[in-house]
Design brief:
InterPro entries: 3-OHacyl-CoA_DH, 3-OHacyl-CoA_DH_NAD-bd, 3HC_DH_C, 6-PGluconate_DH-like_C_sf, 6PGD_dom2, NAD(P)-bd_dom_sf. By secondary structure, the chain is α/β, with parallel strands linked by helices. The chain has helices at residues 13-24, 36-55, 90-101, 119-123, 157-168, 185-202, 207-218, 224-231, 233-247, 256-263; strands at residues 6-9, 29-32, 67-70, 81-84, 109-112, 132-136, 146-151, 173-178. The chain has 2 domains: 6-178, 3-Layer(aba) Sandwich (Rossmann fold), CATH 3.40.50; 185-263, N-(1-d-carboxylethyl)-l-norvaline Dehydrogenase, domain 2 (Orthogonal Bundle), CATH 1.10.1040.
């Protein structure tokens, strides 16, 4: 794999995990966030992710590259791969993508890790829309090898080839899909989470019982509500709203239970409580 300088925009749950994947595969990363305290925490998270990846056998090499952190977006001007992983709000993503695309060169690949916003919608904000591709990593990306890569209507074959080389060079398996709200994974997954939350709210089954049925009967690694806690219930609600607004399907209207948990600050693993208690993870 060609040696690349990777810029990761957003140092939250996914941004820090993507940064860990890249540096663990020998690619230097500049991690950007507007909040220095978030960046300081992210550095510790990257170290934790790398340790876990080694324990799980997901990273066997020792060639860990440099991780730089910065609050200055201009520090990524020389990056040739940009991975956008900011919050799932279209206006925020569009603003960040517009700013970074004005800084990097015309040959730089811009990957958006959006969960549900159509890639072409975001590509309308960048200087070179043909160099913009969706790369929907699953959490945690250093353990889940498959990446849903989204070909926007304006994504070029050259950009897709670079995206494939970048991802496969880190040991990822690429599945290329077409563009649209939620793509494949989240068009199905977010609806499933929403329905599972409604079932729990109706008292038909507990979260534990719902997830046990999915793991025991359908062979899922985790059920929908444990998965929601891993994603972050705030991110689930944001993704559901994107899907509702862009498809007109009211089945994506966030359930009352999801909204209540988010209002209470119970986002899942990252806050220590969601549908489950997560001790020692906050």
């Amino acid at each position: 794999m060609k040696q690349r300088h990777v810029a990761v925009l957003g140092a939250g749950v996914m941004g820090s995990a993507i940064a860990a994947l890249a540096v663990g595969n020998g690619l230097p990363v500049t991690l950007v966030d507007v909040d220095r305290a978030v960046l300081d925490r992210a550095r510790g998270e990257v170290t934790r992710h790398l340790r876990l990846a080694r324990l799980m056998g997901a990273q066997t090499g020792t060639d860990v590259a440099e991780l730089r952190t910065t609050v200055d977006l201009s520090d990524v001007a020389d990056a040739d791969v940009v991975v956008e992983a900011v919050t799932e709000l279209a206006d925020v993503k569009a603003k960040v993508l517009a700013e970074v695309s004005a800084l990097v060169g015309p040959e730089a690949l811009v990957l958006t890790n959006t969960s549900a916003i159509p890639v072409d919608e975001l590509a309308g904000s960048v200087a070179y829309p043909e160099r913009t591709v969706g790369a929907h990593f699953m959490n945690p990306p250093y353990l889940i090898k498959t990446v849903e890569v989204v070909r926007g209507p304006r994504s070029s074959e050259a950009a897709l080839a670079v995206a494939r080389d970048f991802l496969t060079g880190m040991g990822r398996e690429v599945v290329v899909v077409g563009d649209g709200p939620g793509f494949v994974i989240n068009r199905v997954l977010q609806r499933m989470i929403n329905e599972a939350a409604r079932i729990a709210d109706e008292g038909l089954a507990t979260p534990e019982e719902i997830d046990l049925l999915f793991t025991g009967c359908l062979g899922h690694r985790t059920g929908p509500l444990a998965t929601a806690d891993l994603i972050g219930l705030d991110n689930v609600v944001d993704s559901l709203r994107v899907l509702r607004d862009r498809t007109g399907d009211q089945g994506y209207e966030p359930s009352a239970l999801l909204l209540a948990k988010v209002a209470d600050g119970d986002f899942g693993r990252k806050t220590g409580r969601g549908f489950y208690e997560h001790r020692g993870t906050k």
